[in-house]
Design a protein that fits this description.
The protein has 160 residues and is of the alpha+beta class. The protein is built from 4 helices and 7 strands.
Length: 160
């Protein structure tokens, strides 16, 4: 009888462990799927809502006075997701270093064609000066263009 109880307890403990693991996986998937797979500020009216979306993905380096973005996320399940973002933001001049702190100034030119699309949504983001460009070392497609006079940052970043 004692061997039967020990075997029963082992199976019961193993079964309980499986239930806990499955519940955790389901909760994680439910939490992850609450974030949009792609987001565009074109369909968002308030600055607060735009900031909330960007904060949920960790893209706001500082408070903003205006922001427009296009974000695409490819959920890879349990692996880290692949994503890309194009963003323009008007920020306080004192906050610009927070947007470039992990990047180096480069003299190369970058593709800024996305700016026309984003500035069409918000005239506050229009720029007429040439930017200073900062890139992550070894990642040429990831950059921040800084328009110092206008206090505007334009960012392109992705996992690819």
């Amino acid at each position: 009888m004692r061997r039967y109880n020990e075997r029963y307890m082992k199976y019961a403990a193993f079964g309980a462990l499986i239930v806990v693991v499955l519940a955790g996986v389901t909760a994680c998937k439910r939490t992850r799927s609450q974030k949009p797979k792609s987001a565009s500020s074109a369909s968002v009216q308030s600055l607060e809502d735009k900031e909330a979306v960007l904060r949920s993905y960790g893209y706001l380096a500082s408070p903003v006075q205006a922001v427009e973005y296009d974000l695409v996320v490819h959920d890879n399940g349990f692996a880290p997701s692949d994503w890309s973002i194009q963003l323009m933001a008007k920020v306080p001049a004192t906050q610009i270093p927070l947007w470039i702190w992990h990047r180096v100034h480069v003299s190369s030119t970058v593709d800024l064609q996305f700016i026309a699309k984003l500035t069409a949504r918000d005239p506050q983001l229009r720029v007429s000066e040439l930017p200073d460009v900062y890139q992550r070392e070894g990642v040429p497609g990831s950059f921040v263009a800084v328009y110092k006079k206008a206090s505007i940052v334009a960012m392109v970043d992705s996992t690819s």
